[in-house]
Fold each of these.
Amino acid sequence: MTSPTFPTGSILGYPRIGRRRELKKAVESFWAGSITAEQLEATAAELRAVTRQRLVSLGLGATDSSIPEAFSYYDQVLDAAVTVGAVPTRFSSLVRADGTIDLAGYFTIARGEGQNTPAEMTKWFDSNYHYLVPEIGPETDFHLASDRLIREVAEATTSGYRTRPVIVGPVTFLLLSKASEGAPEGYQPLDRLDDLLPVYAELLAALTAVGAEWVQLDEPGLVSESIDVPRDQVLAATKRAYDALSAVPARPQIFVAAPYGSLDDALAVLDSTPIEAIGLDLVRGTIPEGFHTEKTIVGGVIDGHNIWRSDLAGAFDKLENLRELSPSVAVTTSTSLFHTPHDVNDEPLLSDQLKSWLAFADQKVGQVAVLAKGLAEGKATIQPQLDAASAALNDRHHAVGVRDGAVRAREAALTPADFSRGDYATRLAAQDAALGLPFLPTTTIGSFPQTGDIRKSRAAFANGSITEEQYKEAMRAEIRNVVELQESIGLDVIVHGEPERNDMVQYFAENLDGFAVTQNGWVQSYGSRCTRPSILWGDVSRPSPITVEWSTYTQSLTPKPVKGMLTGPVTILAWSFVRDDQPLGETANQVALALRDEIADLEAAGIGIIQVDEPALRELLPLKKKDHAGYLDWSVGSFRLATAGVADRTQIHTHLCYSEFGVVIDAINNLDADVTSIEAARSKMEVVPDIQRSGFGRGIGPGVYDIHSPRVPSIDEVTDLIEIALGSIPERQVWVNPDCGLKTRGYDETVESLTNVLAATRAVREAHIHA
Ligand code: GLN
Ligand code: ZN
């Protein structure tokens, strides 16, 4: 009997949220109780059917296992956890008598219920996607607890397809897990590998029974260096796992995919097991010198992670080179395509020229199909497509706006002095004199609750039913309320509340040259949440001031200092689709120069405090340690370039959140901001010892109010947090502020919480002044 060969062209995964976010809408309706589980399942089945049809129409084979069966209602890591029965103890009542978990239970683990906090969420490799962290302990009872994947493959088989089921591999699953709360000191989830493998074995056998000829096990954990388990243990686990799964009697052929980087030493280990195919990310990664194999190499040469039309000829060359390493070569995407929007042709407002340079998921499938044809039938058969892709690249290279002489000349003329402010002691004295702030100054991070009225005004302006002047007056009215509120609560540094911003990155993208915004370019960020990243396609410059009018209006309402509010270059890059034709650092400096102009204008207009948010600083940190220094160099440099042009008396703030900052605390210090606010309340001030260790000498505001929950912190709670900060950080440096912006909160809880924050601050001020 001959084994099925791996399909010549395939993709690692496809967007699952739907072209019009149908899944998001259905899932949220289910949560709201307005549709039943059966209705939600019907919508999901319809989406899967449409996806299979679409992939065939784009050139994938219907029955050769090239279509990934990679649907998820919420998250692929949660799917794996629920499949293997890894349900945290606090949710054990969700497990039914037969050991299975239903759809409602699945969502409850993701979203929490009552006192039971949801599974923790964290960043998926070097993407903006966030997955749910499984919790594994000695008590975890691994068993096949969900047949969802099996049913989906059966559904495909019944409708005439043969698809390739996709699941997070066992090693990555355990590497991404954390020890459950009751686990003993030093416990690591990877210790449970031998108990987990039989469940994967059972799953593989069941997939064969419903017609799967290939299975895809995703093992991106093998490429990451940000994993706490020692490498030799990771490699040993890889060997044990794939030797064991290969030994399953009636199983599909095994394809292990390693997106997001190089496998390095794990490649030889995988090759030493009896699996049939290995997927390599050849966009981010490379292959160790001298590697040779008898297995199928599946070259991930089409970038699954960005939105550019690839250099197809270059990609085809990479595939031809693979032929020296293996007798069997196939083509795929470097990662799943769920990081990209569906379809460029869904963007009527983008110019035809820009569209000709782009490839969203559907276009990338088309590119894979072309390369597969070339592999099967020879390069000559695809020469016209290779030429067309090269012509598009050439057009992009020479197009107006992609390279702007003035921007480039300005970048080329930069000197070290442009990246540095004067001595801090001098700055501090000038700022103290100019601002006259009290001990323990209080402020917020920028946004105030985004009310329904604000959204209505924005929508009305966008669809032309109110004039620009009416819209601006609505925003000014909002600002007046927010200022009055802050004054009545007693905050020291006032913000305008950001009512005019739909999104902290898109707002700047809409106001800078070099960016385009999409209409339907949604990508899943986590669960049912989607974002619409802007496309940074050309050299960046600022045609005119962006925020100055709002900030000066705000300052006209109050004698207290108003803080201008900007998004930093690293965060603008992190949350956009960035150009791939120059180093990120160069793009970051262009954004920084545009912000530098904005800061100069704010300063000239009398704004004495300017905050430049960089919540994504940690997020872009590369997976490989050897790349850290280079990244931190340009990222920190771009922030400094944006902010270093101001006078000593102007106080620069920055803000960070969403991550643990221990590893980048020195970089944060190097930003040289006068004041840094940082998320800390949720972790009960975990970051404070890191701050102390790094010798932070400037202002620092560890958050004292967790804004991710509607809970109002009590005065005592806030007092304790402030005292923790004061216990390790010199008094003069400490600021009091929430963890992050308030835009997702409601007004009642915000007012109560800020009132408590101020009451706590006053109490601590009293206690310390009298001490
Ligand atoms: N200034 C922004 C706000 O307050 C910061 C948001 C963020 O850090 N994500 O909304
Ligand atoms: Zn924040």
Note: The longest strand covers residues 534-541.
Amino acid sequence: MALRKLIAGNWKMNGSLDGLSELDAIAEAAATHSAVDVAICPPATLIAVAVARQPGLAIGAQDCHSAATGAHTGCLSAQMLAEAGAKMAIVGHSERRTDNHESDAEVRAKAVAVINQGLTAIICVGESAAQRDAGDAVAVVTQQLDGSVPVEADGARIVIAYEPVWAIGTGRTPSTADVAEMHSAIRARLMALLGEGGAAVRILYGGSVKPSNATELMAVADVDGALVGGASLKAADFVPIIAAAASI
Ligand code: 13P
């Protein structure tokens, strides 16, 4: 089953009020290529302003706390993100799994909070270079899925982003054969975890996606879009990726 592709930009800790002008061309491209879903996840401080600037563009968050309220200084709940206008939230990005020692169980709790708020959870998984070199990539990702995906969830409310850690920000990408193998393994695991609902989950590829490799990556079976870091900061890079996805 061909799913609508989602091209999501993760601005990480980049961007500014001035930089939001990039959203104008991105929103225009999203409207032009209406067969593809487009989203931008800016820093949380910019979510509400981004929504006000481009109400037609899906804006998301990069993380959220699993609790609704409470003594969690510096954290943001899914309710707060929804109130700011976010339509989705990334959870379990490898940078947070590493920097903030987030476990699969925490990632799952965050995903549940996001879904319960009516938002879409983009759950990130991916192996390190050492794990791939050891031949453990599929086993590692399968374990992350088992621990991070809420099995009671509606498949349409979940997106998986497969982001090999060694491909993030390095300019390196797996071969299309390796991407195909991993995405097929992820699909099989989602079907095992969610039943038929697993067929509705979009599986994004992330890690050094750019205009020059987007077409070949987006054409791989079971690649239902991309989670884009560096190349999402400028419309000049991001718009051709949207166009590439729309051309498949
Ligand atoms: P890059 O596209 O900069 O490699 O980042 C990928 C990523 O981590 C998106 O979440």
Note: The chain has ten helices and eight strands.
